[in-house]
Design a protein that fits this description.
The structure is a homodimer. The first copy, chain A, is an alpha/beta fold. Chain A folds into three domains: about 80 residues, Winged helix-like DNA-binding domain superfamily/Winged helix DNA-binding domain (Arc Repressor Mutant, subunit A); about 100 residues, 3-Layer(aba) Sandwich (D-Maltodextrin-Binding Protein, domain 2); about 100 residues, D-Maltodextrin-Binding Protein, domain 2. In chain A, the strands form three sheets. Chain A has a five-stranded mixed sheet, with helices on both faces. Chains A and B meet through helix 4 of A and helix 4 of B. Chain A binds a DNA duplex through helix 3.
DNA sequence: CACTCTTACGGCACCCGTAAGAATC
DNA sequence: GATTCTTACGGGTGCCGTAAGAGTG
């Protein structure tokens, strides 16, 4: 039994396929397969049931997985405590992120990661929450910044921060709509993100509380474009605070006072349950340090 | 960092020399040296100070050792829990034993070990307690049956059982000495083991309590020979219970009643502190099951 | 037929052992 | 000089990747 075998087993057991797992341990599928077979031989147990189309954990494998994870974690601790210098992580690190994070604080996070871990090759995937969760589950991502708490059994999440939003409009329109209420809203177009997005939930929640229904919704799946639409006078938009402030400063937008405050959108860092790598701990730590959804971002 | 490297480190750190350690991990000194160097490189720390004539643990090494041991133990647990069958131990196992155990229950212990672990190659070293402790400390033995508790920092011990002894004499002499008291003893020769032996302590303790001093001591460093001397009429002897009973049955000896009972000699199983191998647990378990200092042994 | 995993096989790298060297007592 | 550990080097084993095979949906 080897630590490498256990590592291979962990990924093979938790990834969508051996192909994904092989990528994580920098092996071809064939070599991974053999390594797993060697592990099975060494403990004299079938960890995978290969009769079907895809390899699936046997009951022995299910029992073995948490043990393997614990041992790998222990090994990582020992390795980390032993080495004097702050662990310089190497290898690949795949971050997932919603668009909001990607245009506010994510770039700074990536930069700080690159600075403290020069040997770490980082890649970023920006997508909607569900897609990111899928990829996390499959083993294609290490962590992802997603609104809300993890719901899937294989994933966990910890709170990062809340993102706050402001209702804005182009200066010309803002003059006409001084304060927002059910009446004034009913005459307006609302620029917002697609259904299912966390921000849209917040907006709907707010509309319910106020008891308002907008005349029309203009859906746009990108913050930059949405901000552009609002600035172009397409309607009232709910924009991230940082973005809004930046555009207000440039006099491209004006914020609209709300009688009722908007809920903030709570983002969390999602990751694979039982990921034994110390890299995860480092990502959590630095992620918490870097998080700031109200950051001005590259558009300011 | 590899489990093999950690194993090598454990033995190198706790054995008298790399040569002894190399033997334990089935390597040449040169290969062991390289493996240790690789471990040091992987955690980027000098574990050994090689300036002197012999390699000695650095402070980093001292700190690392218990961590390595813990991880090895954890790995052993995982390995054991994973494999279905009762762990069939393989490799070498070196038992140390005092003479008394060696002629009473040790043979049966070895037999039961050989039966349950056919792939285990067992060797036995019979010597006095101090020598066995030396060899344990050096890493040349796995466990040793020694009277009394472990005192050296690198060793530990757990109680096994007490050995009881009987005062005996040849039938002709026994008739003359019906019960033993200070007076009768002063006219007798006592056949006993050398000074420093645990049995001799018990005998001296008993003599003190009775307030007696024998006329003469006949020292013999082997139980078989001592029993022979007593049977030949050399004097009164303090013999192990099993041996005494066997010879009494053959009418070669008679036991002598004692007004004061003799203390029993408490034997313990000694082993290296922090030995992470599951083999040790198995030795302790089976040792406790097999122990019986009053067993008749091969001479009966 | 696309996909997933295993087997066969050639090549390279790693690791072990022998032998010689360096340093200490 | 004896002992202990390290370095140099040849040889064999093990492991990885490519390619082909087996089985499933």
């Amino acid at each position: 039994m080897t630590l490498k075998q256990l590592e291979a087993f962990y990924w093979a057991a938790t990834c969508a396929s051996f192909a994904t797992a092989a990528e994580r341990v920098h092996l071809t599928v064939s070599s991974l397969s053999k390594r797993l077979a060697e592990l099975e031989a060494s403990i004299d147990q079938n960890l995978f049931d290969r009769r079907g189309h895809r390899a699936v954990l046997t009951s022995a494998g299910e029992r073995f997985l948490p043990q393997a994870v614990a041992l790998l974690q222990h090994a990582a601790e020992v390795r980390q405590l032993a080495s004097t210098g702050q662990s310089n992580f190497a290898g690949q690190c795949r971050l997932g992120s919603g668009e909001l994070a990607s245009i506010t604080w994510l770039p700074q996070w990536v930069q700080s990661l690159r600075a403290s871990h020069p040997d770490l090759s980082i890649s970023v995937v920006v997508d909607i929450g569900e897609a990111l969760a899928d990829r996390l589950e499959k083993g294609e991502l290490d962590v992802a910044v997603i609104a809300g708490h993890a719901r899937r059994p294989k994933l966990r999440s910890i709170p990062l921060a809340g993102a706050s939003f402001a209702l804005c409009a182009a200066p010309a329109q803002a003059q006409r709509v001084k304060t927002l209420n059910a009446d004034s809203i009913s005459q307006q177009t609302l620029v917002c993100l697609p259904r299912g997005s966390g921000v849209t939930h917040i907006l709907d929640d707010w509309l319910d509380r106020v008891g308002a229904r907008p005349r029309e919704r203009l859906v746009c799946n990108q913050w930059g474009a949405a901000a552009g639409l609002v600035a172009a006078g397409a309607g009232i938009g709910l924009l991230p605070m940082g973005l809004a402030k930046a555009l207000v400063k440039r006099q491209q937008l004006r914020t609209i006072r709300c009688p009722q405050p908007l809920r903030s959108l709570e983002y969390e860092l999602h990751f694979r349950d039982e990921d034994p790598r110390p890299l995860l701990a480092e990502l959590i730590r630095t992620g918490r340090d870097s998080v700031n959804f109200d950051a001005p971002g590259p558009f300011s």
